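lol so apparently i was supposed to do this last week
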Amino acid sequence: MAMLVGLALLAGCTVPGRSTPTCPSGDPAATTADGGSLVIIGRIVTMDEPPVAEALLIDGGTVAAVGPRDEVVALACDGVPVINIGDGVAYPGFIDSHAHWIGDRQYYGLDTPAEAMDAALSRGWTSISEQWVDEERLDELTALAADDALPLRVDAYLALNAPAPSGEHFGDWYADREPGLVGDRLRVQGVKVTLDNGWGTLSHWAPAELTETIGRANEAGWQVSVHTVSTEAHEMVLDAFESAIGAAGPNPLHHRIEHAIQVTDEQLARMVAMDLAAVIHLDGAASDWVLEADYLGNLGPGNPGEEIGWLARWRDFVNAGLHVAAATDTPWVYPEFELTDAVGRPTHQIAGGMDGRGLANPETPEWVLAQLVTAEQGLRAVTIDAAHALGDDSRRGRLRPGLLGDVTILSGDVTDATPDEIRAMTVIGTIVGGRIVHCSDPGVCGDD
Ligand SMILES: [Zn+2]
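anyway here it is w/ zinc ion bound
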């Protein structure tokens, strides 16, 4: 885990004539326990208005100002650290809305949660969502939160059943809890249903049982995320969500479908009507594509050729107006469990969405060309729409006054680069709640 102490102060951040540590407003400098204060100067991509700014002020852990350099700097309290990111570009902190960084860390040979979180931070994630948390894992996360040992934000989704092969159901073990924050960094607001297996060949739920289970969670105010691969599973989950929230929505808890590998046109229309979030894998889905024959084979020999159009419908989802989040599903999407530099990165989600290439898929399959998305769409999928998929877009996903001061600084601008240039970008720094929790360039964000 990277450390940061004693940032250099720029002369320009001190208002001339001011000798006490107060802000121009006269308020005392922020002193909240968790939140840091910081000014960032450089190219700031806000995912808001204005889309690009010259400077950002984080005060007490939340964004206080975004805008022209002089105006933002003038608002900073005396003594607030200022970092100038030079040629780097700052973005709203990237959100990995579906992964298993901590819970399944052993597949990468990582022994401790701290190592797993450091791996995520160094790749540029400021929030990770643990998508399969049983009681043991929840105890571990709760202890980390109590010990102030979460350098990034964790959204835990409580598992209602085991994956294949057992599929064992755990019952409504969340029911004695209230959904919400557990400390500053841990949020427990969702439950996770693993409806079918990775290839969509095995269902772990009967339709009525799924409908009743989702209905109870919805009624109790819990967001529901459902691992759904096959068209048969989509039919079941759409029926269940319609029973819970109505065929036309709305969907205030942001219920979501994970993976969404095979979706018919009619099913996509139902997803849109309910405003369900879709969580997909723009880099790792490359391995899905390699397995296209397996997926199509699910439907039996002789399935019509046009069904290839049901697979990995990224652009169709985006064009239909769904909230589409891109997530790594670390460590499960990649064919080999090896945590190389290229694995689990937000940059590779964006680049993979643009050219359809990934670790398992060095060449773009021709049939995927129709589903490629733009850099801007990929960026939304790891910021605004990822925050939406967490049901937390009122706090995260863009840089706007009042929202959390989470920032990822990359070495370049993903909206003005080729996919390979994006893959080559490095993470200069990762900032959570105004505190620099990872810094790879001491000249920019380090102490010397
Ligand atoms: Zn997963």
